[in-house]
Amino acid sequence: TQLLEQSPQFLSIQEGENLTVYCNSSSVFSSLQWYRQEPGEGPVLLVTVVTGGEVKKLKRLTFQFGDARKDSSLHITAAQPGDTGLYLCAGAGDSNYQLIWGAGTKLIIKP
Amino acid sequence: DSGVTQTPKHLITATGQRVTLRCSPRSGDLSVYWYQQSLDQGLQFLIQYYNGEERAKGNILERFSAQQFPDLHSELNLSSLELGDSALYFCASSSGLAETGELFFGEGSRLTVL
Lengths: 111, 114
Fold this sequence. Notes:
The complex is a heterodimer. By secondary structure, chain A is mostly beta strands. Chain A has no helices and eleven strands. In chain A, strands 2, 4, 5, 9, 10 and 11 form a six-stranded mixed sheet that branches. In chain B, strands 2, 4, 5, 6, 9, 10 and 11 form a seven-stranded mixed sheet that branches. Chain B has no helices and eleven strands. Classes of the chains: A mainly beta, B mainly beta. The interface between A and B is medium-sized, with 23 and 22 residues.
């Protein structure tokens, strides 16, 4: 059974600080997605990473896919209150048609 | 606005009752997915329909059922409700067959079972 573990489960920091959240597995994924879910909303896709070692940047957010395609990280620089939300990672598993979802990291950025 | 519409937004009901949640996918999307999300937890995949046919099944209880209609809207039926069924239920849609493409989520239906 493929699993994705996200850490930390919860993070509360001050505006302006940097942070990194992780998405780890012992399994290889063909691709990995990161979603952000704001309170009262559905998740919204931020990025999809496909190639081992790939780095993608979205303004202050940097996503990295591990070389072995078993893990991924999301780094936020100079966090802002608007970054508050639940960050979910989801990997394309064996079937390549269905996603394996992590449990999420709840991020709170205090002004 | 994702283009996915879910109704109702909020629903309060009693144990043992039955409810129906409705989802209209984005225009042109053939796949509809249903997920359950308990408080601040990740998403539990329930079921996927593609162009009216059941495509994939996740951890969906036997008390739950779903269908996709010819106009591509979908309904999730939850029966013999228990307290533990209280959760957010999300619908998502995509243009293709695979969940691994981009998913567009609705705002969810919050179900409270008392």
